[in-house]
């Protein structure tokens, strides 16, 4: 166990986020969530492979043009194409390293998860057996093992979050048909963990909408979902339209994701967003 534990820390050059600092003192901040981490890992790996395939296709296309250009074309154009090819090749190598790092982190996470499950099962078995000095000592040791594995899993979750990239969220407006009238003013509040985005909008006389902000960058989080709250502003009063949550797993894609969220229970008012990863 000690060898496995030290190897986990030594393979990670990244410093743990501030949220994990107290782990060094043996205090747990939250319980790891293996099922959620597995979902995010699979979505992340799928998205990274999509990017890799797209750039590999671009490289194949440029390489084909490069061969034709070498035989009969201007020298300047040939060198410009050569620079493009080298740039795409460098990006592909970065993607491949990114994918291998994510896989390495997740493999280490799964090992610690299995060790923790094994120690938990043994702890349960010892607690059901007759109490002796040896069994009590074993229980203490097993409790320490469970705690250490849990700390390592939390540490790896923090390291994995560094590789999740960014979500560029664009405001595309409200959809409400008869519910939206010229002059109506709304406030939209989007939260992802500690990250917040508050913006105000107005329905114009020609049914168009103006918003004081159009785009916000969010850093993906392993455990948190997007929380969206919409309120209508009437003078000094505010009327709650609705509060919804939105999972981010489907956002790990090469293409911009158009999101249409039901704000009211009946779907009479919807919020349109576009998310680019």
Automatic annotation (TrEMBL):
**What lineage is on file?**
Eukaryota, Metazoa, Chordata, Craniata, Vertebrata
What species does this protein belong to? Brachypodius melanocephalos
Q: Which family is annotated?
A: Belongs to the RIPOR family.
Where does the UniProt annotation place the signal sequence? none
The record ties this protein, via InterPro entries, to: FAM65_N (IPR031780), RIPOR3 (IPR026136)
Q: From which domain of life does this come?
A: Eukaryota
Looking up PANTHER family in the UniProt record yields: PROTEIN KINASE PKN/PRK1, EFFECTOR (PTHR15829), RIPOR FAMILY MEMBER 3 (PTHR15829:SF15)
Annotated protein name in UniProt: RIPR3 protein
Cross-referenced Pfam families:
PL48 (PF15903)
**Residue ranges annotated for the FAM65 N-terminal domain, each copy included:** 2-277
């Amino acid at each position: 166990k000690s060898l496995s534990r030290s190897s986990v820390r030594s393979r990670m050059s990244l410093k743990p986020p501030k949220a994990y600092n107290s782990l060094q003192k043996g205090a747990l901040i939250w319980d790891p969530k293996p099922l959620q981490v597995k979902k995010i890992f699979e979505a992340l790996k799928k998205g990274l492979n999509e990017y890799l395939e797209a750039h590999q296709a671009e490289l194949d296309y440029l390489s084909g043009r490069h061969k034709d250009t070498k035989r009969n074309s201007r020298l300047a154009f040939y060198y410009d194409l050569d620079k493009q090819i080298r740039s795409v090749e460098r990006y592909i190598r970065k993607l491949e390293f990114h994918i291998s790092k994510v896989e390495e982190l997740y493999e280490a996470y799964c090992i610690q998860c299995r060790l923790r499950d094994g120690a938990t099962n043994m702890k349960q078995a010892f607690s059901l057996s007759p109490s002796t000095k040896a069994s009590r000592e074993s229980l203490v040791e097993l409790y320490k093992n469970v705690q250490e594995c849990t700390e390592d899993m939390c540490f790896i979750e923090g390291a994995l979050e560094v590789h999740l990239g960014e979500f560029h969220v664009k405001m595309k407006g409200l959809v409400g048909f008869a519910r939206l009238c010229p002059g109506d003013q709304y406030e939209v509040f989007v939260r992802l963990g500690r990250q917040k985005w508050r913006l105000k909008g107005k329905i114009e006389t020609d049914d168009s909408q103006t918003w004081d902000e159009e785009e916000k960058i969010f850093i993906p989080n392993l455990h948190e979902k997007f929380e969206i709250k919409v309120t209508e502003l009437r003078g000094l009063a505010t009327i709650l339209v609705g509060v919804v949550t939105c999972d981010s797993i489907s956002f790990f894609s090469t293409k911009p994701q158009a999101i249409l969220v039901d704000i009211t229970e009946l779907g009479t008012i919807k919020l349109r967003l576009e998310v680019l990863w």
